[in-house]
């Protein structure tokens, strides 16, 4: 962090003295200084879009503001200078008191690019692979998806779609604008095809028996339009929709603040997702949380009937609003706690690295002061090796690079992977302390 970081309060821009860390300069709980972007901090301010994209109520209530975080947080750069010049954007979170939806009301979709350089796959983690396999089997068994037509929107490298098709003998079509020919990893023998086309209502054919959109909806500027397109893709009778997205209630309750990333314009909660899916013409079959509580999911089926909201919908939304305001207040304390963790890790010139070069790491490195003293970021995805983190410019190395030059401390971005990392480095003979960037349920 440099002294060029800025914090904004009440619409006014204020200089923040940053070297002392955010605990010293956070002006109020909801204001945090971010970024090392120099002149680029002076980008034009867009009007905030305060109308709720789910229920249409407004204005939504703002509760947290970060300025100057890299917008393409999942795109690593080939050189350090390019990484440090990555486009910055603002994140202003607001909550809808009526339906519990949370949005980045400063979101500017024109700043984002999704192309083949967008590499957000979690596929390399055995834990995530196991989760995907279990999910595929559950959908196949519960809805008898065998010998059927399956569509996945945001299919990435195609691994999940391949699983669905292989395990159920289905035919699958995957849509992903970041798809590049030869880039997919279909399971051998799986009957799948891929398109780099953006999925919309024109693409939809109303023939799919199962439509999946995993970790997609949070990126979509107009989620209701997207859900209606998915509705148009599905068989009217007995077709099934599966959608999952990060659970904003989990994120806020667990203070998992590193999941705040620019590409996520929407942060879903159960009442907001239920309402959205209902308004798009679906009946909710099941809604719940999965992947250690981190994801919110919904199974739904097309319905012609208007969907009544449950009686407790407004109290649920009220609880979300309260949680959001508390989250805004506690955010600064979390950042300060992580500043101290980094400082301890690098004290006395000890070598410390971060583990996980995903979007969470980009937020962590760009928000927490003092992270420039971390040597590198380790990632198991070989495609990321030799690349640089947008904003801060940290180099990305592979786990095997740790053997030659072992660190004293490894800070793991996602606590859910800590044990996995601990056994992986122990097996490689690296004796480093492995700590989580933030404990589950603890700031
Ligand atoms: Zn709303």
Q: What are the key terms here?
A:
7-stranded mixed sheet, binds zinc ion, 5-stranded mixed sheet, alpha/beta, 21% strand, Rossmann fold, 27% helix, 11 helices, 3 domains, 443 residues, disordered N terminus
Strand content: 15-25%
**Straight-line distance between termini:** 22 Å
Overall tally of domains = 3
Mean pLDDT score: 84
Spatial strand arrangement across the major sheet: 9-8-7-10-11-14-13
Over the alpha carbons, how many angstroms does the gyration radius reach?
22 Å
The CATH architecture category of the largest domain equals 3-Layer(aba) Sandwich
- Quickly count the helices: 11
Bound molecules: zinc ion
CATH superfamily of the largest domain: Vaccinia Virus protein VP39
Structural class: alpha/beta
Would you give an account of this structure?
Helices cover 27% and strands 21% of the residues. It is built from 11 helices and 19 strands. Helix 3 crosses helix 4. It is globular and about 65 Å long. The two termini are 22 Å apart. The chain binds zinc ion. Zinc ion binds next to loops.
């Amino acid at each position: 962090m440099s002294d060029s970081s800025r914090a904004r309060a009440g619409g006014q821009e204020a200089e923040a003295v940053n070297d002392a860390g955010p605990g010293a300069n956070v002006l109020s709980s909801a204001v945090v200084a971010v970024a090392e972007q120099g002149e680029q901090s002076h980008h034009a301010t867009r009007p905030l879009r305060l109308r709720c994209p789910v229920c249409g109520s407004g204005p939504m209530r703002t509760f947290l503001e970060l300025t100057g975080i890299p917008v393409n947080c999942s795109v690593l750069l080939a050189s350090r200078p390019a990484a440090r010049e990555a486009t910055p954007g603002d994140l202003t979170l607001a909550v809808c008191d009526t339906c519990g939806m949370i949005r980045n009301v400063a979101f500017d979709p024109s700043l984002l690019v999704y192309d083949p350089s967008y590499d957000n796959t979690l596929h390399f983690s055995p834990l995530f692979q196991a989760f995907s396999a279990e999910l595929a089997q559950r959908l196949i068994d519960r809805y008898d998806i065998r010998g059927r037509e399956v569509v996945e929107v945001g299919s990435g490298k195609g691994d999940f779609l391949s699983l669905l098709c292989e395990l159920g003998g289905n035919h699958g079509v995957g849509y992903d604008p970041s798809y590049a020919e030869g880039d997919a990893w279909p399971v051998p023998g799986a009957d799948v095809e891929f398109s780099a086309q953006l999925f919309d209502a024109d693409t939809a054919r109303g023939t799919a028996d199962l439509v999946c959109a995993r970790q997609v909806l949070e990126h979509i500027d107009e989620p209701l339009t997207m859900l209606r397109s998915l509705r148009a893709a599905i068989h009217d009778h007995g077709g099934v929709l599966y959608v999952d997205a990060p659970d904003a209630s989990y994120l806020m309750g667990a203070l998992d603040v590193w999941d705040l990333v620019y590409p996520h314009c929407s942060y879903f909660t159960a009442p907001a997702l239920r309402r959205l899916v209902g308004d798009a013409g679906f009946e909710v079959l099941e809604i719940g949380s999965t992947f250690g509580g981190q994801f919110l999911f919904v199974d739904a089926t097309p319905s012609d009937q208007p969907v009544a909201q449950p009686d407790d919908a407004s109290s649920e939304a009220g609880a979300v609003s309260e949680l959001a305001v508390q989250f805004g207040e506690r955010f600064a304390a979390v950042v300060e706690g992580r500043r101290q963790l980094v400082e301890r890790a690098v004290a006395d010139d000890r070598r410390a690295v971060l583990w996980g070069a995903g979007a969470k790491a980009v937020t962590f490195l760009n928000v927490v002061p003092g992270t420039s003293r971390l040597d590198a970021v380790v990632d198991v995805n070989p495609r990321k090796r030799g690349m640089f983190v947008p904003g801060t410019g940290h180099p990305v190395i592979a786990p095997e690079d740790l053997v030659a030059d072992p660190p004293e401390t490894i800070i793991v971005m996602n606590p859910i992977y800590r044990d996995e990392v601990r056994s992986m480095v122990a097996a490689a003979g690296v004796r480093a302390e492995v700590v989580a960037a933030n404990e589950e349920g603890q700031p």
